């Protein structure tokens, strides 16, 4: 049995603790409560929602969405999927349930405990020093432990959002792919007449109220009231850390840096990687490295797809095509590389005669 120190009581650190059975775990969380302050929109695909619902309780999963409206400078694209493909996770209930689960396994979750790196086997908290056999670094996008072990800092982007009142009666998620001063922005209706509106930007100085007004106009969703702003930073896609150091220190979540390049979501990777990290703690670091490398290589390919504005703008066109051709599968929400392949195949299915005549034309 090993003693494992987990730095950070966010989804990544708490999920690792909740899945670890044969070792003693201590989670250090600097805030007085887990899950707060909140920074994430909490939209995930079916894989992540089902995984967490089965592990914890179905209550952590809120409403699902099957209709998306993409606003682009080429026009608006409404896409309705046959089934719900994205789900809202209730926060901070998610972190609270994960912490309860970890504690029910005998692990300790120390809140109000800011950890400082000591070395490969030690963590400093206040005046004290804790010794561990393994350390799991899950201290988020600004990871101090990443800087300590790897040196340097990663590029960060700013996610700004607000709970807003609306009376659109809308059940669709709106995504604006061509906002000014932001990479993309979104509106997500929650239960009742409240929703979350937000944007990802590299320029955190843009006035959030002006940004919200402009995105409300572009998405044609009037916001009656802005209740509360919240948000945080995301790691710029592409800055992936080494998954472990000497089989002793492991990185996961935003500290690892795997982020979806189209949506900036990180929760899917956490759910995929936490079970492998638990195996790695048990002495098989290579299984973790393999999984990180697999996800990272697809992630890099997706980053290339997402890297130019034109490709981003065209993505709803391809998405619509894939959905109409019947090739869409719920895993495509998280695995965009599959969408890229399917978007090449879709026209063959949808317009066989057109493809045939092009092929004949090329053959002449
Ligand atoms: C605006 C915004 C919207 C997002 N929307 C989505 C979304 O819709 N879907 C999705 O999948 N992802 C989304 N993300 C990304 C997602 O929030 C992250 O990928 C996820 O929170 C990463 O979890 P984590 O546990 O690695 O880090 P965090 O959630 O950042 O948790 C890290 C924890 O460590 C604690 N901590 C940090 N340093 C220390 C220390 N030294 N000692 C002790 N504790 C420490 C922090 O207090 C925090 O609780 C969004 C992010 C932002 C900013």
Automatic annotation (TrEMBL):
Record InterPro entries: FAD/NAD-bd_sf (IPR036188), Geranylgeranyl_reductase (IPR050407)
PANTHER family: DEHYDROGENASE (FLAVOPROTEIN)-LIKE PROTEIN, GERANYLGERANYL DIPHOSPHATE REDUCTASE
Protein name: NAD(P)/FAD-dependent oxidoreductase
Organism: Thermogladius calderae
